[in-house]
Amino acid sequence: MRKFNIRKVLDGLTAVSAVASASSAAQQQQAGNRETEIQETLQSEHFQLCKTVRHGFPYQPSALAFDPVQKILAIGTQTGALRLFGRPGVECYCQHDSGAAVIQLQFLINEGALVSALADDTLHLWNLRQKRPAILHSLKFNRERITFCHLPFQSKWLYVGTERGNIHIVNVESFTLSGYVIMWNKAIELSSKSHPGPVVHISDNPMDEGKLLIGFESGTVVLWDLKSKKADYRYTHDEAIHSVAWHHEGKQFICSHSDGTLTIWNVKSPTKPFQTITPHGKQLKDGKKPEPCKPILKVEYKTTRAGEPFIILSGGLSYDTVGRRPCLTVMHGKSTAVLEMDYSIVDFLTLCETPYPNDFQEPYAVVVLLEKDLVLIDLAQNGYPIFENPYPLTIHESPVTCCEYFADCPVDLIPALYSVGARQKRQGYSKKEWPISGGNWGLITQSYPEIIITGHADGSIKFWDASAITLQVLYKLKTAKVFEKSRSKDDRPNTDIVDEDPYAIQIISWCPESRMLCIAGVSAHVIIYRFSKQEVTTEVIPMLEVRLLYEINDIETPDGEQVPPVPTPGTGSNPQSIVPQSHPSTSSSSSDGLRDNVPCLKVKNSPLKQSPGYQIELVIQLVWVSGEPPQQITSLAVNSAYGLVVFGNCNGIAMVDYLQKTVLLNLGTIELYGSNDPYRREPRSPRKARQPSGGEKAQLSREAISALHFCETFTRKADTSPSPCLWVGTTLGTVLVIALNLPPGGEQRLLQPVIVSPSGTILRLKGAILRMAFLDTTGSLVPPAHEPWREHNVPEDKDEKEKAKKRRPVSVSPSSSQEISENQYAVICSEKQAKVISLPSQNCIYKQNITETSFVLRGDIVSLSNSICLACFCANGHIMTFSLPSLRPLLDVYYLPLTNMRIARTFCFTNNGQALYLVSPTEIQRLTYSQETCENLQEMLGELFTPVETPEAPNRGFFKGLFGGGAQSLDREELFGESASGKASRSLAQHIPGPGGIEGVKGAASGVVGELARARLALDERGQKLGELEEKTAAMLYSADSFSKHAHEVSLLKSSFLMLFCEHILCVTVHFGPL
């Protein structure tokens, strides 16, 4: 006998039997009242979950490298992450599986490969010739700890220094160890009994590849002859060494020390330094040694043809400079510039015109990796200005407190935000183009605009263009400027809500169509903004103060989902209209001395100049009530068509007409139920003394407002047409409906009051209500009514006023296409389950228990592939999607466990299968749950490696070539190969094949043999792609900079072809002419 689930209906309130489960959705539809069949198009094959891109500053950076030919920058982090940056819009994120800190990075220059050294003593070879870089080889050292690596330009032999003071040599093609080893006891004086310490530096002499300079931490430096396998010279110093750098002629090198000194050594004079410099030491009289300074952590020595060399260093400040910020010092000739940084310096690199170490370096910029920022300094301009950073690295400028993501926005939004944001840019940047310019953009397969909004701890809000997996800041709004700043600790905001960050943004409600913005702050304040392209000065900032405090005694929860009967209209307990309340006059204390009617923040009382962009419409603040501070706001919604904003917390709900600047609704949550409260609760006087022992219990028992949704639908079972209303969800799983009676549009809207009245409709789900949405009779999403954006700071003419009158009724009168026989569907998602309710009958036609053992953190009703679905992220790490309206499970993937509240606070889904969350305090991780996007992702990603000719080696000159004295080459294969040096000990290191497969192995690690031929062939391929680049550039319509940059690149490429051709002809002429 076939079993059916019997639906129980009590006075229009639906409660589904507990035995209903996910697999019984189809049976429920048959068992209930038969509703209109809706054809659903989404299937499981439409869904696939994958990460797309990561934006923001690399969290906890630890290493830095630069390829001067490819012009690619690499940053490693303490968590094993690897971030690669090319031209703006070309970024890549990779992760070492071990999660060990990256201690050093080395590019195989112009080879499309990178070596990373990790704190767990592993070396990894990354192939950068594919859009998603992968590890080709790994080498795990078992007995020694890696401290320093050096890979000479155009060499396949990597020198690896260890904590024991030894140097091993790795073949980067096969990632195997050579039998050639430099042992520490052979490198130092044989008579020395003390260990020299770990290797802190390795480099070969720029003019002689057979001479290797080895720096030990203790202060000893050794010049090692690779062929004779012995030390030519040993240089000793009393102070520990932090770094070493060569002069390009190979006759001098410079060391930085722990006492803040620099020592310059002549190679052939090992007895004492040629010169000792203390850049920041106070020079004492009588020739005494300067006072010691802080360690100089790194020094670089770069030469120029036209002038004095640059000595660039980090650290070395005097110990008496207490509180001074970290500095980078640039010494050039007789001038010394000290550049203060906002954060600690992790590492820096000098960018030079040539990759060859034996040529004049011609430095043009310094890239400085800070703890929380990346700075590029222009060395060619006076004053050393910084470059304007085009990467989206300022997400964490102030800690992110909330996030919202909008896909498929109106097309005019991004240009509008960009135009007002362009006026906010700082001045004084370098006039040169950003020098990290490698890689190529991917194909733009997504044509819809995407916007990310981030709220921050300092009260700022940033709008980001997130279209086509890129990120660019558009506009920044500072909400805190409406409030008076506290000048001292005694004058701090009088709030018990937060000790710091009183302006932090908690909730953002934004209507892209009307551009209305509403934010809720941590100090129980709400600010409503309008968008304007005109600058205005507001003489008096409009503000309202609202008293919202309502406490209750302990509650008794009703069993299951049963709810007492709700009286229907006309039965004697018909809900009465709620009279609008005026806000109270402000006073500092009540009659019994308790703080009363005082907001947490003080609004400025002076005129406020508001730039084009978002401008204040109204400030609303909750106030103290009889010594009780206002509670933080838990939900917020704004509707531009109705001119209303509503917000709630654990005490109740308030609705404000922001057009008339009046409070329409101010009720405790229990009062929303009227006499139909399903919980037996009794009001308690706010003035009653609070008992600390029961404080937590009272807090838990409060029913907070958790979801708010304006809509035009059926408010009661007996309705024959939809009308404006507000749906309210609470933390106890209740949904209540409030009817809205709006006056006509135009001038009448500003004169007649909005009537607000409870409808008597109450629905119940398990768990706190998270999200609500509405479908029409075809299953399409019914968006909330909205008003199209218009410029409010320009007077309207008569025609515009007539249009305004016609615009308003769309949100008031029922839709003409909505027949009486047609119905709608309410989709309600809670922490535990989802329901689809048929309206106006209020029958539950579908139900899905999303999770039994966990809870939903975020649920969104989103559009995908011309259909809609419910997307959920659970605390147990699962991402799930369900069809609508039938709530069939379509996707269930374990993705990310809830490891901290940052993820819960920032995770959000949006249309077209997009989602994001804050993966670290400084980075946004974007992902997709769309199969189509996953398939197109490879094309959308940029290319890091582009075929480029390696610059020609410096000319040795006729006499140097004839009599010697130029750079001496070395056949390293002859020295380090297995035939000459033998096999290395197997127990020393273990080779691990990488997961990257064989793709790009030959190209990524084949040395320089045949590189010229490959590059010429690839240049032809690059020429074919110029048309594609023009299309990509055209997609960035609002960015004029991109157009000029692209045109410049094309002209340079043409010039390079001509120069190569001319040089080739010239070489042929010179070679054959004299013969």
UniProtKB/TrEMBL annotation:
WD repeats lie at residues 234-269. It is a peripheral membrane protein. InterPro entries: Lethal2_giant, Lgl_C_dom, LLGL2, V_SNARE_CC, WD40/YVTN_repeat-like_dom_sf, WD40_repeat_dom_sf, WD40_rpt. Residues 570-580 have a biased composition (Polar residues). Residues 787-803 have a biased composition (Basic and acidic residues). Its main location: membrane. GO terms for molecular function: GTPase activator activity; myosin II binding; syntaxin binding. It comes from the Eukaryota. This is Syntaxin-binding protein 5. CDD domains: R-SNARE_STXBP5. Pfam families: Lgl_C, LLGL, WD40. Residues 582-591 have a biased composition (Low complexity).
